[in-house]
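Operator note (shift B, R.M.): manual run for phosphoserine phosphatase requested after the automated queue skipped it. Running by hand, logging everything below so the morning shift can see what happened. Input copied straight from the record, untouched. If output looks odd, do not overwrite the archive copy; leave it for review.
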Amino acid sequence: MANNATSPRQDAARPQLSSSMRSSSYLNDHQQYRPPRQVDTHYGIDTVVEDMNTSGSPKPVLPFRGIPSEDNPPTVVDSGVTHSYTHPNCAPPTGTNTNRLIATLIYKQRSSTAGAAGSRSSLKGVKSESNESLPANMAPTTDMDAFPLEPPTQESEKLDYIYGSYISPLCITSFLHLMSDFPMPDDSDELYSSHRCLDNQETPRVVELTLSPAPSPKYLSLKDLRKHEMIYRFEQEWNVDVNLQRESVWRRHPRLVVFDMDSTLITQEVIDLLAATVKDPPDLAEKVADITHRAMSGELEFDASFRERVALLTGLPATIFEDLRSILNITPGVPKLIKALKRLGIKTAVLSGGFLPLTSWLARELGIDHAHANEVVIVDGKLTGEVQGTIVGKERKRDLLVQIAEQEGIDLSQVVAVGDGANDLFMLDKAGLGVAWNAKPRVQMEADARLNGESLVDLLYLFGLTAEEVEQLTQ
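Run finished. Output pasted below as returned.
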């Protein structure tokens, strides 16, 4: 019994590795330390979206397939990522059409009172002229037809001076708030938007906004929306150009771009340069320049004013056109723009109310496909002061645009026209997109889009191209 008390149990046999349990590694066979299992910090969708049902009633356990349901409601986890699963920029539902509006906001880097040639007045300039102080009991005009129908509005505060000389976030917010005030289509109750900075993320000068849906055309057509006073005041406050276009494949893929020449492809008016060479009478250049300005502003009929100005040039040598080549000042960005258009396979044309010798030469220099302008009569090497054939005025420019489009097999919806004067209005209206370039006030109000910058390359932004893509096209 004592033996039982001192030895309650037999010592267990010492465990040993049999030959079948041994491996080729001594360390693997005898190590006592095992590293702890690493906690997986990456959660899959099955751990993010869990079954939140805590009721006591048992329910059949079904495999979770990633789609929340009543049995598998989602758990919201703050991961720092926000994504709204909506379809404002997707293909429209079956049986409907895309209803999106593209707003391209371009910050104007220079003073809005400066024209491309320094002699044109902007919208702001015209308004300031109407506010000039007058003597007591004096009216600005005695012609009732020319009397303004409304008093000039108060000048808008320049907000870009406060929030930054670029398209700031507050500028975009202000524009979206403005657009939300316009009536939406009956089947829509919310405005969706997205944006792209086309040139720079930090301080963008060009921002493209996509608005879905577009304001209801039953209340306001796109043409009237472009002229709306709220849009105009926004442009003045933030020093931007607002260009509104319907989203379509034609917006992104034009096939023909038609340009005016004077004050568009070049910064001067050729007929003014010709007049400046005449020294007798000494005031001829000033007189011709005044007629040109009034004709471009729409105050004078272009055809009659052109014949009057050409008559004043009687006796000039025909070699004057060659002499003027060296002093023509090409608008900044034009060579780069033409190169980009050619690489995209887009045809180009210049329709000038000037003179064919200079227009044809400039078209060859830039690589423009079509060139049309006025032909002057030359006898014994001198200008007779007469014009041969139909004058390339506003009607002729429109007809030439249609003629070139038909010749190239291009639909008018894929034609873009760019000009600055009243004689370009018919051409701008006929094209799928008419662009006013540093234009007269009347042209700016009538055109589909307006650019008041320093480089004509800005035209490419209206097609949705980014600065990076423009650089690739012009290398």
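Quick read of the result: The longest strand covers residues 370-379. The longest helix spans residues 394-408.
Leaving this for review. - R.M.
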